[in-house]
Amino acid sequence: QKEVEQDPGPLSVPEGAIVSLNCTYSNSAFQYFMWYRQYSRKGPELLMYTYSSGNKEDGRFTAQVDKSSKYISLFIRDSQPSDSATYLCACDSWGKLQFGAGTQVVVTP
Amino acid sequence: EAQVTQNPRYLITVTGKKLTVTCSQNMNHEYMSWYRQDPGLGLRQIYYSMNVEVTDKGDVPEGYKVSRKEKRNFPLILESPSPNQTSLYFCASFPRTPDNEQFFGPGTRLTVL
Q: Mind telling me how many Å the CA of A14 is from chain B's nearest CA?
């Protein structure tokens, strides 16, 4: 079983809707939690990182971590067609990163 | 411009022919790492380095070697490539603690025949 589980999707939403993405993890040693966006044929780019339970907001993006449940989430408000990409969650323990499989998101105009 | 560069971007080779994929960063980051990305398996960490002369295995290190002689460079070496190493490879560079300054390279698509 993978240490970080993520639904691969695809997740299709209409423009303007809220996109909700989730991951679960099993290793209590993870300290940092990240979300990346990856467009086709490109390297991942960091969207959000957190290191404690709670919410972190950056523009249209909100990252949520619940360490007690080992659950991390990313919300994208007012989604745009340009948000169509694969979103990867990642958990870090002293430099050893574990990625989820990635969720493909399609925002339709 | 802050960036991670990888070379080559595309490579087709044959089984057993040693190859090196270079990775270089210009941000003075301590941490560098190599990943491979395969359909259905996502990104898997091969090796990582917390600083010069400090390297450690990730989840899938078999068949790969790395070295970190200088802070800016972290080459990935395949001594005897095999077809199951056909993949998309990414190098990444982070500062000591992950923050907004994280960069992935553009990727190297390797095919081993």
A: 26
Secondary structure (DSSP) of B74-98: --EEESS--GGG-EEEEEEEE-SS-
Q: Mutation test of the interface with chain B: which of A32, A94, A97, choosing the one with the most B Cβ atoms within 10 A?
A: A97
* pLDDT tens digits, one per residue of A40-68: 888 999 898 888 888 999 999 999 999 99
Token pair 């600083």 in the structure block, residue: B51
- Residues B5-52 pLDDT 10s: 999 999 999 999 999 999 999 999 989 999 999 988 889 999 999 899
In sequence order, what are the residues at sequence separation of 6 or more whose Cβ sits closer than 8 angstroms to the Cβ of residue A80? A15, A107
Does residue A88 have a pLDDT over 70?
A: yes
Of the partner residues A34, A43, A96, the one whose CB lies closest to the CB of residue B90: A43
Q: Give the N- to C-terminal CA distance of chain A in Å, as an integer.
A: 37
Determine which of A99, A103, A104 to mutate to test the interface with B (most B C-beta atoms within 10 Å): A99
